[in-house]
Amino acid sequence: MRKSGFLLTSATSVVAIAALSPTAIATTGNVGAQVEEVTNSQDIIVTARRRDERLQDVPTAITAIGSAELNRYASSTVTDISARVPSLVIGGTSGPGGSNINLRGVGAAGTNPTVDQAVSLNIDGIQLSQANAVTIGILDLDRVEVLKGPQAMFYGKNSIGGIISLISADPGKELEWRVRGGYEFEADRKQVEAMISTPLTDTLGLRIVGSVADQEGYYHNRVNAVPGGQPATSSRADDQNEYFVRGTLAFKAPSGTFDAKLKVAYASTDRKNGLGSSFQLFNCPTGVPQGTFGATGGVNDCLADRNVVDPRISAAAASLAPRYLGNGTPFFRQKQLFASLNIDAQLADWLKATSVTGYYNYAEDWSVNYSGTEVQTVVTGARLRDQQFTQELRLQTSLGKRINFLVGGYYQNAVKRFDAPLVFDGAVTGFTGPALIADDRFRQKTYAYSFFGQTVLTVTDQIEMTAGGRYSVETKYFDGVRYPSALTLFAPNPIPFQFTSPRVSFNNFSPEVTARYSPAENVTVYAAYREGFTSGGYNAAPGAFSSFGPNIADYRPATARGGEIGVKGTLADRQISFDFTVYNYDYKNLQLPIFDPATISLNIRNAGASRVRGAEFSGSFHPRNLKALTLRSSIAYNDGKYTDYRGAACYAGQSIAQGCNGTPIADPVNGSRFTTQDLTGTRLERAPKWNLSFGATVDTEVTDSMKLMVGGDANYTGSFISMPEHDPRSVQSSAWRLNATIGVRSSNDGWELALIGKNFTNEQRIVSAFAFPLSGGTAGLVAPGLGADLAGSLSEPRTVMLQLTLRNSLLR
User: What was the pLDDT predicted at 32?
Assistant: First the structure.
């Protein structure tokens, strides 16, 4: 019935566009959710539903962060933004897939390069399915929109967990420039940013922003000279340089019937360390790393203390795979190119057409001595290439106050290449020298298209109903080749992999229905039902596949359905703003990362069913009698659990009594053992039950020519599991983080000097943990075995930045 209703809605929309006469002028709006402060008002205008609306009128859960708030705490990464959004948890990984993004406990594997994120990034209208862009800086943003829950309607490909939409600033009507320099003391980070915006003609504007950054890093590379060991490349990590530039060209016709906007951005990161500098061992059952197999040497203390071990790769090992490992110096290089073209054309007074064209090109190369000590045991590297082209077309009506329609289509063409070698050495090979175990190269092609439509019915001035949905079709092709190595028995020619299903196709219809009631001008009550879909795909798991037989490599798509109710608005003559939401969503086949330390491979496994439900409240107080003061708070409770996950992977050394009692297999050493556990009823990973935030800012004049800015925030995150196998040693305890800023600026905003501190409590946690290669004992036996060494990426420590900003008003 839902599908029939959607077809009827779509047909009605087409007929209406063709037959109804114009009755009103169409609304205007940019692609993405626009956020701007309205003069003499606390209203925020958004176009999250492709029409101008106050944020408090939109019937969905959205957190909007404007440029002023981003600049206040020097929020220059997506990870920084997570501190401002309840239930958003972002953590780095040590693999090729970018980062792990979890919103309300829902996320996907950041470690696998072929998986689509459950929470997607959208940068200037470009929908990105992977989280690689989390690692670059974000500059000169006009606003950030975080839409929570399944998003099927307006943001390209479906996202079952939510959308993080980043919208950069556009050219203005007058000449504007800004120069900003900053120094962060802990990482010895120097950064310079410059921006200029100017009208070229009455109809054409240009805006360019660029930055250069250099840092020594938060970590100390503790590598000693030991027999048979490798030296360090540098004493600090991540020792890297970063470059970023974006240009925006905007055209607006005098008649107001046509406008176009082209944005092109390029970002580059060049690190003098490998991925070994991005993680550290934090829990070793024996007190020292197991990977040395008794070899002497090593300084890894197995503590989360920012002391890492990132040694060079031996010349002998590097010579086995020079395409990836170079001369043996560990490295990490990343380049990203974004381009988007947005065109709005007023076809008639009642009909607007919008075209959004996107292009994304991503290149990543890295190498790593995955040994945990100076004594070399495991070496690997990777070359990742990702290109995608997207095109979206929309038609939007403005037929009057009672009924309007939106219809459109979306297309994506993407190609991803992932190559990786695997070299064993040291005790693993009997100290006979390094051996190339595998040299695997994969390619995945994706073709996706979807059609969407929505009907907006304004029943009365207080009641609005909307109904619509998106129908999606996605096809993926996957192939791979293993080059001569130990796993090909050193065959003279590359051996193509055999896959049981080298082509997979998925289709889905995701409906959405909302009801909105406005009992007063500044209060909105709403209820919404939504569904969502993320396609399945293939594992690109180097070293894990057979060279001589068929391989099962695909995983299933994930789906979501459920709803939320909420109330938002302002009270006390706009002195108090509030937003309260209650939600309940069911998920099937969530795509979870599994790292196999024995084969050193990344796989995706589907969880049968999950559920997230909870409540979120945020509010702010702007007392009229104390205009300089702003108070704010947020409280989020989230109950995210697996309701059916009987085939979860066991963690290393887990015994039958400890829960590893599913899926028996024959074992040549132990006779037989079990390989899976039942995690039904347990919490999702990176899904803390409670998130709290309290803050205040004061912005006041201290003299006729100077203003004072003071702000502080306290953020609490509850405990959570950081490992998909649920090793109890990976639980991260609850913590408070304190941030503060103090600054002065001229009355005309010509200059500004600020001291910005983050995480004064110096609370650091492992957001995403994994079992370290070649460590841990066999799982699924009667007696408990040795647990694996656990490793992961630490969150940022306490940081203090001094920042100076100069603007064009300085010369007035």
Answer: 35
Please state the pTM of the whole predicted model. 0.89
Q: Answer yes or no: are the C-beta atoms of 726 and 652 closer than 8 Å.
A: no
User: Quick check: 770 and 94 in contact, CB under 8 A?
Assistant: yes
Paired tokens of 20: 């109804």
- Residue 298: which of 426, 421, 187 has the closest Cα? 426
The answer to whether 773 touches 597, Cβ cutoff 8 Å, is yes
DSSP state of 328: S
Rg, the chain, Cα only: 27
DSSP state of 435: E
Check residue 24 and give its pLDDT: 31
Could you count the other beta carbons within 10 Å of the beta carbon of residue 758?
23
CB 121 within 8 A of CB 166: yes
For residue 406, the one-letter residue type is L
The span from the CA of 712 to the CA of 255, in Å, is: 46
Closest C-alpha among 497, 447, 455 to residue 472: 447
Position 786: which residue type? Answer: L
Write the DSSP symbol of residue 262: E
Question: Which residues of the chain, if any, have pLDDT below 70?
Answer: 1-48, 50-52, 92-99, 109-111, 131, 134-137, 226-228, 291-299, 596-601
Place of tokens 């996950």: 645
Pairing status of strand 662-667 against strand 219-221: unpaired
How many angstroms separate the Cα of 465 from the Cα of each of 8, 33, 516, 524, 531?
Answer: 16, 21, 6, 13, 17
Place of tokens 């974004």: 338
Assign 52 to helix, strand or coil.
coil
User: Omega of the bond prior to 238 within 30 degrees of 0, cis?
Assistant: yes
Query: Which of 204, 228, 202 is closest to 295 using CA atoms?
Result: 228
pLDDT at 444: 94
Q: What are phi and psi of 223, to 5 degrees?
A: -120, 125
Q: Tell me what pLDDT residue 12 has.
A: 33
Give CA torsion, residues 569, 573, 577, 578, to 10 deg. -50
CB 281 within 8 A of CB 300: yes
CA dihedral 496, 499, 501, 503 (to 10 degrees): -30
CB 499 within 8 A of CB 405: no
CB 199 within 8 A of CB 170: no
Instruction: State both tokens at 62.
Output: 């959205």
Structure token pair of residue 9: 């809605």
Calculate the CA 544 to chain-centre distance.
27
CB atoms under 10 Å from CB of 539, counted, come to: 24
The helix/strand/coil state of 306 is coil
Q: State the Cα–Cα distance between residues 25 and 489, nearest whole angstrom.
A: 71
pLDDT for the residue numbered 597? 67
Residue with the two structure tokens 């064009």: 808
Q: Return the pLDDT at 670.
A: 87
Number of Cα atoms under 13 Å in the Cβ half of residue 458: 12
Give the separation between CA 427 and CA 413, rounded to whole angstroms.
Answer: 45
Q: Determine the 3-state secondary structure of 79 from DSSP.
A: helix
